[in-house]
Predict the 3D structure of the following.
Amino acid sequence: MFSVRKRARLAGVALAGIMLAGSAAANAGVVVKSSGPSADQYPVGEEVADSSTISLRAGDKITVLTDRGTKVMQGPGTFRVGERPTRTRARLTNMTRRNAARGARTGAVRGSGGSSGPDTIPNLWLVDVTRGGPTCLYNLDRVRLWRPVSEEAQTYRISQVGTNEALDVEFVGTESVRALDPAGLQLMNGQSYTITGPASEGGSMPNVEIRVIEMTEAFRQPAELARALVANGCMSQVAVLGNTAEAEAS
C-alpha cells in the first residue's frame, strides 16, 4: 500500500502535470490567416506553441494570434511564434467583448473610392447575408445583418429551416447594416436559417444557410476568442478576425 507521504508526492506530480498542460494550452497561438505555398502546413485554426519555430518559403504569409499579441510572418525566413508579437490594439481587443456587436452602426457606411457601404464586413459579430455556415453570436435579441456594397435598396428573407417562420429584412438606400427585429423572427441557439437574397439579373434568388451558435462566455484576449470560434466551426468569423489582426499589426 502507498504511504501517506508517497500518495501526497504522486498527487503533487499529477497536479503539476495538469498545471503544465493548462499553461501549454494558454501559451499556444492560433493561426487566423494563412496564404502561400505553406498554407496547407499551417491551416487557419491550427494551434502553434509560442516556443515553436516556423520556416516559411517565398510567397508565404502567416498571421498568428497569441495571448501577448499578433505575429505576422512573411517568407522566406524562419520565425519564433512568441518572439516580439505586435501588441493588441483597441479595435481588436474590443472584438472579444460581448457588447462589440452593439457598437455596429446601422445606416449607410462609406467605403473606399466613394462607394456606398464597406467592401468587407467591418465587424465579426454581424451576420453576413452572403456567407453560410456556423455563425457565433452573443445576445440573440440584438442581431444585425450585413450586406456588401450596394447602390440600391434590397430585401433579404431569413427563414428558420423546417418551419414557416420567416421575416423580410429591407436594407434602405445604400445602408449596409440592418437590425433584425426579434419580434418578427427570434433567432435561437442551435437552429439553422436560410437567407434568401434579391433576384439577380438572371432571375435566380441566391441563398445561404447559417447555423446559429450563441456565445455565453466573455473572452479577455483575442487568442482566446479565436480558439472558441474555431471550436464552434465559425470559420468565416475567424477570417474576419484574421484580417483585422493582420491590418492592425502592420
Remarks:
- Residues 42 and 149 are 32 Å apart (CA to CA).
- The longest strand covers residues 28-35.
- The two ends are 61 Å apart (CA to CA).
- The first helix runs from residue 4 to 26.
